[in-house]
Design goal:
- The complex is a heterodimer.
- Chain A is mainly alpha-helical.
- Chain A contains 14 helices and no strands.
- The radius of gyration of chain A is 22 Å and the shape is flat.
- Helix content of chain B is about 35%, strand content about 25%.
- A 5-stranded antiparallel beta sheet of chain B has the order 1-2-3-5-4, with helices on one face.
- In chain B, a hairpin with a 5-residue loop joins strand 4 and strand 5.
- In chain B, helix 2 runs antiparallel to helix 4.
- The longest helix of chain B has 21 residues.
- In chain B, about 35% of the residues are buried.
- The chains are: A mainly alpha, B alpha+beta.
């Protein structure tokens, strides 16, 4: 659909609208940016809801963004809107997957299991087994399995959304960029050499480097794909890069 | 002495991403009974879900989706998991897990991840007659 505003920049339209211009400008801005919602929604489509449902939740975020955006601050609308859309979708998932559906007992168990898993890994020098966690916590293996799976979803959401109340607007632009640029990664060397050296790493570390370096995925994208948090990706990447550098300096 | 027959657990699922969580929980439930570590179970969950997602995305293009079977066989030495569909199939010789170029391109990420996280992966497929992804994880003793 063409409109007489098509030639105007988003910033110009916002200024016009805030000056008390045509109310239809609001609807036009929403329509113009629906692509952002579809783009963001794609990242969440593997979490058990239809793409259309996620798009409609994200649309609410877009409407908020249009109503709250202040063009005089000098940020681009998309930079402001994407985190707001994400925030809305994440809040939706958090309400559904955590607050409402998960019994308190499992929520608590999830945190205990995670902590214990790290402690035992330190003590044993290897990743513990579910039966070991279950015995230590005095619950069934099935409870631990459920708790860890549910906790994973919670971790994904809580870390995405930051520690704020979930309205996200104030904290997100910085988070958006976090983990996307990584000078370290560009400097490790020639692609073929890296590929060769990579084969000597453990599978988990190989995957992180391969997705980040060869596939150009952000830490957040890698985390979503593997079902772990961006922070965890960052830790694994740090370790893998250190090892990779050691291998490569030995070879030369 | 012949090895004891493996225990076999089968899931039949519609090819829909909303069942990924079911797959993850079931894989964890079955795998934990083989005594493997929490980290290894995490790897298995990623591998099986990538295989399942791959099937959802590619197996039924332009065709009525049929249910996908996930078959888990827990032997004494290994855990074997198959993802089987009756979709359009493809020529499996196009897959080369070792090639860096495949990773830099657009597709192929799902099967790369499966390959990384499992000890052995075979893909049996023919255009027109469905696909079977056979994944094996050896159990450390």
């Amino acid at each position: 659909m063409t409109s007489r505003w098509d030639a105007m920049s988003t910033d110009e339209i916002f200024r016009e609208l805030r000056r008390g211009g045509d109310e239809k400008l609001r609807a036009y801005l929403i329509e113009r940016h629906e692509g952002l919602v579809r783009h963001v929604a794609r990242d969440y489509s593997s979490r058990g809801e239809t793409y259309e449902d996620i798009v409609s939740v994200g649309h609410v975020g877009l409407v908020h963004a249009v109503d709250r955006f202040d063009p005089s601050r000098g940020t681009k609308f998309a930079t402001f809107a994407v985190p707001t859309i994400k925030g809305e979708i994440q809040r939706h998932f958090r309400d559904r997957t955590w607050g409402l559906r998960v019994p308190r007992r499992i929520q608590e168990l999830s945190m205990q299991a995670r902590k214990l898993s790290e402690e035992l890994a330190q003590q044993l020098g290897r990743s513990p087994r579910y039966e070991e966690l279950a015995a230590e916590l005095g619950v069934s293996e099935e409870d631990v399995i459920e708790a860890i799976e549910v906790g994973r979803q919670y971790e994904l959401l809580s870390i995405d959304a930051g520690s704020s109340d979930g309205s996200a607007d104030d904290t997100m632009p910085e988070m958006e960029r976090r983990g996307d640029t990584d000078p370290d990664l560009d400097e490790i060397g020639d692609r073929d050499e890296v590929w060769q050296a990579l084969q000597q790493l453990a599978a988990r570390e190989q995957v992180i480097i391969a997705l980040r370096y060869f596939r150009d995925m952000s830490q957040q994208e890698v985390g979503d794909r593997l079902g772990i948090s961006q922070m965890h990706v960052s830790r694994l990447q740090h370790r893998a890069l250190a090892r990779l550098r050691r291998i490569m300096s030995r070879d030369v | 002495m012949p090895a004891a027959a493996p225990d076999v657990i089968e899931l039949h699922l519609p090819p829909d991403p909303k069942y990924i969580a079911v797959v993850r929980l079931t894989v964890a439930g079955v795998a934990s009974r083989s005594g493997i570590s929490v980290d290894d179970v995490d790897d298995l969950k990623v591998a099986v879900c990538e295989a399942f997602t791959n099937t959802i995305d590619h197996a039924f293009r332009g065709r009525d989706p049929k249910s996908v079977t996930i078959r888990m066989a827990t032997g004494s030495a290994d855990l074997r998991i198959e993802v089987v569909d009756e979709g359009i199939g493809f020529d499996p010789s196009i897959i080369d897990f070792e090639k860096q170029a495949d990773l830099s391109g657009k597709g192929g990420l799902g099967l790369y991840l499966v390959h990384q996280y499992m000890d052995d992966v075979k893909v049996e497929s023919q255009p027109g007659s469905g696909t079977r992804i056979i994944m094996t994880k050896r159990l450390a003793r």
